[in-house]
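Page 47, continued from p. 46.
Same chain as before, 138 aa.
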Amino acid sequence: MISIMFSILLLICAIIFCVIHDYLEFLDKGKIDHRNKKPLLIKAIAVLPAWLLFAFNSEAKLLWASSVSLLMCCSWFWLFFDGLFSVIRGYNFWFTGSEDGKEDAQTDNLLQSVPLWLHIFIKVTLIVISTYVYIKLL
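Result:
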């Protein structure tokens, strides 16, 4: 149980670190260019320890546990990174980004193309399903 709590703490730290990192870049450049893959790599490296710890905490086969853990970590990260990054910039939690053209994140483009209720439904459903399956694997 302590290792699960530590996994959660690592994921929270990764989200906060990435929000601060992107916010500092936003302050410096006035926008985030999602064509640059460096921020994506930073996010992946930041989430890696939490993902691995979640995967190894499960009693399921490693491939299954790592797949479900990755989906769960990414779902939680997507919701809270997007929400906190929006809030820190003065928007509401469910803001999906501005229309920056080529610099837009593909996930922002997807969410901008659907109604807000569906945006919320997609993110929350991914979290609920992946977390439920992960708990069943414990």
